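User: Working on a comparison across species. This one is Threonine transporter RhtB from Duganella qianjiadongensis. Can you predict its structure so I can line it up against the others?
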Amino acid sequence: MASIEDKVWSVPPFNSKLETGIRALVVLEAFYPRRCDLAEMTWFDHLVVHTGDLDGHDVPESLHPDLPNHTGELLVRRQLVEQSMRIMQQMHLIEVFECETGIEFCAGEEAPSYLGLLQTPYSLALKQRAKWMANYFIDQTATEMRVLIENRVGRWTAEFQITETQIGLLK
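Assistant: Here's the predicted structure for Threonine transporter RhtB from Duganella qianjiadongensis:
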């Protein structure tokens, strides 16, 4: 029988559901009160750590290295982002809304208190980039963001994300 320590150490810390959920929460808190759908959250999960993929005034340096083909991450991230946000919802940190256009997510009432506890240099840098990103996208519609993602990250990855959301793969 596996011990609790074996179970804890068997979960990879990088890109785990918990880490991705915390990133999603940081992004949603930065965008508050704006609600975001799954496609947007998948894009934002990528962009908050790869801010260098965006153009503009005072773009912060990416938190994660720019590896070859890192834009392909979008293709595999949707399911992880969705699962991670479910965990944050179960912890009452993210609220889920069923709307005419689909399912949208927003930071919950407890989010600021929880995020205030995260004070590591990486967490602070992540929060700073999320705030910068929210300001970058503040006046853009989902359609305008999609065009930007197509142009900066790749048309095929943006289309893949939109198509998956439209056909209702969100369960």
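For your comparison, note: Residues 158-171 have pLDDT under 50 and may be disordered.

User: Helpful, thanks.
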